[in-house]
Amino acid sequence: xxxxxxxxxxxxxxxxxxxxxxxxxxxxxxxxxxxxxxxxxxxxxxxxxxxxxxxxxxxxxxxxxxxxxxxxxxxxxxxxxxxxxxxxxxxxxxxxxxxxxxxxxxxxxxxxxxxxxxxxxxxxxxxxxxxxxxxxxxxxxxxxxxxxxxxxxxxxxxxxxxxxxxxxxxxxxxxxxxxxxxxxxxxxxxxxxxxxxxxxxxxxxxxxxxxxxxxxxxxxxxxxxxxxxxxxxxxxxxxxxx
Length: 242
Description:
Layout: E1 4-9, H1 14-18, E2 30-31, E3 34-35, H2 36-46, E4 51-56, H3 58-64, E5 73-77, H4 83-91, E6 98-103, E7 106-107, H5 110-124, E8 135-141, E9 150-153, E10 159-163, E11 169-178, H6 185-190, H7 196-205, E12 210-214, E13 219-220, H8 224-235
Parallel strand pairs: 1-4, 1-6, 4-5, 8-12
Antiparallel strand pairs: 2-3, 6-11, 7-13, 8-11, 9-10, 9-11
Helix pairs in contact: 4-7
């Protein structure tokens, strides 16, 4: 199965700027000498994506020419109003049955991302064409993030709900999703949804079966302290999967 990668990178990173982490757009913030945009593209390619498309805003586009980009990365410039609209823009460029999606600020150790992909594929497809889930989300143990998206996961690994109600698990910013989710774009806009998390909740309400694969070491990079934690994580030697 051909795998396409996709990156949501159209935000301005206001929380990171306010906390003193940078004055650059978040996709161009460097993590150990590599921009987050390039790092995420490289990570998706290493995990099995044959190509990657990223949506960036016009501010990032005006500066990105100063940075070297992987040849497999294609940029779509759009000043979207929210993360859901960024996802829907990406959908215009995707052609395969499933795609590997990441937000640009979802920092995950490469071995964990590379494990997530085959485990996710086993859950969404099998040789005889059957499937357990329609899509799979990476989840991780909540470590006190200020804006988590909690996941209520059943014993069978099905995500029953996403939201603010506290559970042990939160989403990790990496997703293996079917392209068919874009069929719900019109309904999402009719309901004035304004975030990726709301769109995912709509999918669950529409009986799209989303499974969970737990990963370790995930960091949601929102503030300067998160950037420092991510730098320490990147400097650690790679370990075997837990």
